[in-house]
Amino acid sequence: MAFHLCSSPSSPGHDLHYLHNSVSFLQKPTVRSFGNLNSLSLHSRISPRIAQVSLQDPIPQETQKLDASNAPDSQDPGRKTKSYIWVNPRSPRASKLRQHSYDARYASLVKIAESLDSCEATEEDVSLVLRCLGDRILEQDAVIVLNNMSNPETALLAFGFLRKRLKPSREVILYNVTLKVFRKSRDFDRAEKLFDEMLETGVKPDNVTFSTIISCARVCSMPNKAVEWFEKMPEFGCRPDDVTYSAMIDAYGRAGNVDMALSLYDRARTEKWRIDPVTFSTLIRIYGMSGNFDGCLNVYEEMKVLGVKPNLVIYNTLLDSMGRAKRPWQVKNIYKEMTNNGLQPNWGTYAALIRVYGRARYGEDAIIVYREIKERGLELSVVLYNTLLAMCADVGCTEEAAEIFEDMKSSGNCMPDSWTFSSMITIYSCSGKVSEAEAMLNAMLEAGCEPNIFVLTSLIQCYGKANRTDDVVKTFDRLLELE
Fold first, then answer.
1. Alpha-helix runs per DSSP H in 325-452
2. pTM score of the predicted model
3. Does pLDDT of 190 surpass 60?
4. Please, are residues 322 and 293 in contact by the beta-carbon 8 Å criterion?
5. How far apart are CA 445 and CA 462, in angstroms?
6. Residues 258-312: tens digit of each pLDDT
7. How does the average pLDDT of the chain come out, rounded?
8. What are phi and psi of 275, to 5 degrees?
9. CA–CA gap between residue 268 and residue 266 (Å, rounded)
10. What angle do CA 389, 395, 397 make, to 5 degrees?
11. What are the DSSP calls for 205-230, one per residue?
12. What is the rounded distance in angstroms from the CA atom of residue 475 to the CA atom of residue 271?
């Protein structure tokens, strides 16, 4: 089992890279069948240096000089020697070998990283934790410790401690795993400062350095910085790989450089780059903002063909785009596909559905979404309440509108505004409920909202239907005062 310690973990955004200079360690023992017994296969060619498994003491030599007489091939010197021997997993020797495996050492190094994350950010405390590594610190041990840290303050101190006591074959690896810690903690300022220190100390950055900084800028929602660092790469003789290029589609799109983003996407399709879901979401948003709604659907279909599973962000972006395209039938199909794929809608999903169904006057569908939101205990915003009420006014859902209005008042976080009262007065006026319309007008005035021309026009129509001529004249005079 090889530990690729310099590869980045999955992040909200995407892993930009995998370090090509990863450190490979001992293979994990694997269980094999030998006759009727399960036996343990161990690699016999163990480097004395890598075989140090306790934090300070090397593995005893007896674990390296295994009894070759027990191996079947040892009795025949003419046969080719195999690279492994069989050991009964129930024997004391197998237990001892397991204790001295690199898995045990790796777990100890991870605990050291956790201790560094929780200790005080002082040189004294950091050095106290790292002393358990002993005087002869291995380069791969330093990489493991830094790679598993998440505290940017203590990571920087640990980096300085380890760098002074090591003469790594490639110092840039230590810098890269430290940059990765800054990416985890979304500390872009420290990442830039560490890069400046690299140049001052004469360490040449590599592709991994730039891809880590670019991904750090992305997770920090700094697309312009990602573009800036991407365009610096040629100055240092670094050529972006396909993963970096794909990530820059998202960065250029978020930075507003749509032409560059789409140009890279065309190249990605030609050269078959691996594109992550975040980038596909950005592409859908780009096409949606430009009004190319068929382009949104094309990207969605291409993504599925490539085997990329759409996530909730992609579905929400696509639903919003189809809403702007005034295609509620496609919204219903996409939402059905999303739920069939096992994804649970969130607040963003519901908000997109209410906007789409509200504008399209899909009253029944909008009310169903509203009730589902309430069942899940989610809260609506003033805009969503007003969207629902405006839809109710358009389709004549009087009872549902009254329910939504009362829910809005009792929510505690959304107070009715002029748009809310306007919709309610329109609803009651169209249904001929004069007293309710007048009560809503009074509530509107008490809330400090002045009726506009649409409200007064609705009242005139309401009074007209009720044959209240005097009220029609009074309201009309009030309407003239607005001119």
1. 328-340, 347-360, 363-375, 382-395, 398-410, 418-430, 434-446
2. 0.61
3. yes
4. yes
5. 18
6. 888 888 888 888 888 888 888 898 899 888 888 899 999 999 998 888 888 999 9
7. 79
8. -110, 135
9. 5
10. 60
11. P-HHHHHHHHHHHHHTT-HHHHHHHH
12. 69
